[in-house]
Design brief:
- By secondary structure, the protein is of the alpha/beta class.
- The protein has a domain of 219 residues: Aspartate Aminotransferase, domain 2 (3-Layer(aba) Sandwich).
- Helix content is 35%, strand content 20%.
- It is built from 17 helices and 17 strands.
- The strands form five sheets. It has an eight-stranded mixed β-sheet. It has a three-stranded antiparallel β-sheet with strand order 11-12-13.
- A hairpin with a 5-residue loop joins strand 1 and strand 2.
- Helix 15 crosses helix 16 and helix 15 packs across helix 17.
- The chain is globular, with a radius of gyration of 20 Å.
- It binds flavin-adenine dinucleotide and iron/sulfur cluster (SF4) (2 copies).
- One iron/sulfur cluster (SF4) binds next to helix 2.
């Protein structure tokens, strides 16, 4: 199998998700991140990265290595499922703040917890992803210290490209406690970094995530606005969802024109999502190494209409459970009914299918001499062994045919 010798080997083999951690490690004089013609945020080497620094990147990059929940975080009372990994508790939950619940992606569980963390002074700031203030079709990472900063920047599902970790070293260098909210691949990179940089566990107190169907390429958003003959510079608002659950995909121009599409008509068919290649081979899109993973709860996997917003929480660690209990006691989060793994399977059939398919996809890449992600503690080989031969072969061959499109 081809070895990864430089940054281009990660990017050109479709392993990069654009998280930005490599740039945060080297600084902007060595790595630049820009939007590629395919609509992905990709890092490029501006000056030669010293080999010691590149080794540091190899140890954390979610295109190179992804692992399950660190052993020391697995609580003695935790249950375990072959698809969903370790969990302490599963239940419906949402923000008690009506505005947060309405404007956020699902029920505002992540924004509600972030607000509680700030107002209870458990952390000084939240590192999260928001809408670019001048270019609303794009997303940027942000350090929010106050309620207004946290909530007035459309920090809900930003399905397009984002680099949530490009300010991670900046955050560590502040020497203040914080929480990180991001995608499972971002969380995985932070867990890897925590093995060699003790500041990570000392300062980054909570890792909150969302169950993730994949990050869509920027071209998907471009096609959306172009279908209404709108140019990017004309936009004043660009929302993927929220303002309801799921809420509509919605744009508004600076001169007041408004257009929208129902969630199902835009996201209903998985084959049209146009997700990054890295997402198709994602060994952990379910936030295995987070403290809490939040998800949508539509039976069968897609919404039947609008509702008030009901997240499910997969509570993975004792720290995550304590946080939720404290936030509920303080009145920030409302707990709904307890759930079973069968419910989570029903809410997320595409995740169950991907987890079962991923090892065969990696195998298909290796057979073609393409490097793929090293994994540990994610049970993907065990799941592969339980699949039918036909299923595995289809996935292996399927990925081989997609390799041309990396
Ligand atoms: C790319 C993507 C794919 C998703 N796929 C699924 C799926 O398959 N199944 C499912 O149940 N849910 C999925 N979601 C999550 C879902 O849309 C809700 O975000 C989730 O239920 C949490 O809802 P909430 O109301 O608690 O979130 P909110 O309270 O609205 O908080 C959302 C949080 O997500 C963070 N965030 C948003 N976009 C990004 C990004 N691109 N990178 C890093 N962090 C980001 C924000 O910083 C914010 O803190 C996806 C979200 C994203 C961004
Ligand atoms: S996945 Fe992240 S760390 Fe890896 S190359 Fe891409 S931007 Fe850099
Ligand atoms: S599917 Fe995986 S790689 Fe893609 S954005 Fe989600 S967590 Fe990251």
């Amino acid at each position: 199998m081809t070895k990864i010798n430089n940054l281009n080997d990660i990017v050109n083999n479709g392993l990069c998700i654009g998280c930005g951690l490599c740039q945060s490690i080297t600084g902007k004089d060595l790595i630049e991140i820009s939007m590629s013609s395919k609509g992905r945020l990709e890092p490029h080497e501006l000056k030669k990265i010293p080999s010691e620094t590149f080794n540091k990147i190899l140890n954390v990059c979610p295109g190179v290595i992804v692992e399950g929940l660190p052993k020391e975080q697995v609580d003695t009372k935790a249950k375990h499922d072959l698809v969903w990994g370790h969990y302490l508790s599963l239940f419906y939950a949402w923000s008690t703040d009506k505005k947060i619940r309405f404007e956020s992606s699902t029920g505002g569980l992540l924004n509600g917890l972030s607000l509680y963390l700030l107002e209870s002074k458990k952390v000084k700031f939240i590192l999260h992803t928001v809408t670019h203030p001048e270019k609303p079709m794009r997303s940027v990472s942000k350090l929010s210290y106050k309620k207004e900063e946290l909530l007035n920047s459309n920090s809900c599902s930003r399905y397009g490209p984002a680099s949530p970790l490009d300010k991670f070293y900046e955050a560590l260098n502040l020497n203040e406690s914080f929480a990180f909210v991001g995608k499972p691949c971002d969380i995985s990179a932070i867990r890897q970094l925590s093995k060699t940089d003790e500041r990570v566990n000392n300062l980054c107190k909570y890792l909150l995530t969302l169950v993730c169907g994949g990050s869509t390429e920027f071209t998907k958003s471009q096609d959306f606005i172009e279908s209404f003959k709108v140019k990017e510079e004309e936009l004043s608002i660009f929302r993927y969802r929220g303002f309801g659950n799921p809420g509509k995909m919605y744009i508004k121009t600076k001169d007041g024109r408004e257009y929208d599409r129902e969630y199902n008509s835009f996201w209903g068919e998985e084959s049209t999502w146009r997700v990054h290649f890295r997402c198709k081979i994602c060994p952990d899109a379910i936030g295995e190494s987070s403290d809490i993973a939040a998800l949508d709860t539509w039976r069968g996997g897609s919404p039947k209409g609008e509702d008030e917003g009901f997240n499910a929480a997969i509570v993975r660690t004792k720290k995550g459970l304590d946080l939720l209990n404290d936030a509920m006691k303080a009145g920030y989060i409302k707990k709904g009914e307890e759930l079973k793994i069968e419910d989570i399977n029903d809410f997320q059939p595409h995740q169950v299918n991907k987890k079962k398919a991923v090892y065969a996809r990696h195998k298909g890449m290796r057979q073609k001499n393409i490097p793929t992600i090293n994994t540990n503690g994610l049970r993907i080989k065990e799941l592969y062994d339980l699949n039918s031969k036909e299923f595995n072969l289809k996935e292996e061959e399927g990925i081989s045919s997609r390799l041309k499109k990396i």
